[in-house]
Every structure is written in structure tokens, then in C-alpha cells.
Design goal:
Layout lengths: L10 E3 L3 E4 L5 H8 L2 H4 L9 H9 L1 H6 E6 L2 E12 L12 E9 L8 H15 L5 E7 L3 H9 L3 E12 L3 E11 L9 E3 L2
Parallel strand pairs: 5-6
Antiparallel strand pairs: 1-2, 1-9, 2-3, 3-4, 4-5, 6-8, 7-8
Helix pairs in contact: 1-3
């Protein structure tokens, strides 16, 4: 059973609808992710539609990729990768899980608080429905928009690694890791189950 199977879909917020991705989402995904201002900070380029369509045929990729819609139009995506927390062998079966999260938003929909709304709803589901212990995200230190969003969510900076991240154009950059524990989460009323 994947983590997606444990969540009540779609997640509906005041302005957004979040759902699991489908193969037919490839073109809309590629349309904004290929733009230089979006691709700048992403771990993988999406310039070629054929290769993006190939990724969307991979069930594991689709399991980690969520679609963010506004008024029926795809405006962004979320990344959710659930994994086991590290634990010593004697208590490994008692260790809860954690998730790495990420996001990308079409430039025409940025600056309106939509990314914060979507990520807040995802974090809420991570703790409320998936029962996760910890949620974390990483970014290049130069990606100010990303780490500011993490701080708005109440995530704390757990690490500042020096030149640990190789950027395709900028060379070696510092990297940040932010995290939030379930007991630290203070959900707001930005997500509600769909009827």
C-alpha cells in the first residue's frame, strides 16, 4: 500500500484542489517546469515532453507526484516521498515514518500564497492521515523563496551545509534542510476533506 492510498483524495483548500498525478498530466507539468524561472531550482530539467511523458508512465514517479489545481487548471505540483526513519535494529519496527516534501508552481500563479496553501495542506495530511513523525525539505541556500516558505510553515532550519549541492549552472552552493515534527505542527483551517 502506498502513502497515497492512506489519504482521502482530493485535498481541497480554500482555492486549490490537490490530487494524485495521472499519465495525462505530463504536458501540463512540462509546460511550467521547462520555464527557466521554475527550472532554476529543480533537481531535474523537464525540457523534453517525450522524457516527461516517460516519467509519468512510471508508477513510482506518479506515486510521489501530486497535482495542484486551481479552477480545474494545473498550476503546480507537490512531491511526497515517505520513508522509514533511521532507527537502531532493536527498535526499528517501532520507528514511525517521515516524508520529504517539495513543490513547484507555475510563475503566473506565484506571489499569491498558493504554494504556502498547498504545502500547508500536504503537511497537515502527512501528520493527520499518514501519522508521520517528521516532514523535511531541502533546497539550495540561494533559493530564497523556498526556504522562506518553509519558515512560514513553521519548519526549523536543521542544517546549513557548505557547498554540498552542485547546481547545473552555478556550481557548488550551500544547501539547507528544514524539518517539522508532528508534535510541533499547528494546523490552520486551510484544508478540508472533499465531500
Amino acid at each position: 500500500m502506498s502513502s497515497q492510498d492512506k489519504v482521502s483524495w482530493p485535498i481541497v483548500t480554500e482555492r486549490l484542489r490537490i490530487r494524485p498525478s495521472e499519465e495525462t498530466d505530463a504536458a501540463a507539468f512540462q509546460a511550467y517546469r521547462r520555464l527557466p524561472e521554475v527550472a532554476e531550482w529543480l533537481p531535474r530539467l523537464s525540457e523534453d515532453l517525450t522524457s516527461v511523458e516517460e516519467r509519468f508512465r512510471d508508477e513510482e514517479f506518479r506515486t510521489r507526484t501530486l497535482v495542484v489545481e486551481r479552477d480545474g487548471q494545473m498550476v503546480g505540483d507537490l512531491y511526497l516521498s515517505v520513508s522509514d526513519c533511521w532507527a537502531q535494529a532493536e527498535v526499528q519496527d517501532q520507528a514511525p515514518q517521515q516524508a520529504e516534501i517539495g513543490w513547484a508552481l507555475s510563475p503566473e500563479h506565484q506571489g499569491q500564497g498558493l504554494a504556502l496553501e498547498a504545502v500547508r495542506a500536504l503537511v497537515d495530511r502527512c501528520f493527520a492521515e499518514l501519522g508521520l513523525h517528521r516532514v523535511y525539505a531541502t533546497c539550495f541556500s540561494d533559493n530564497t523563496g523556498s526556504w522562506r516558505l518553509m519558515e512560514k510553515l513553521g519548519m526549523r532550519r536543521e542544517s546549513h551545509a557548505i557547498k554540498d549541492s552542485l547546481h547545473r549552472d552555478r556550481g557548488w552552493l550551500d544547501g539547507y534542510t528544514y524539518a517539522l515534527l508532528a508534535e510541533e505542527w499547528a494546523p490552520e483551517t486551510t484544508s478540508r476533506p472533499s465531500p
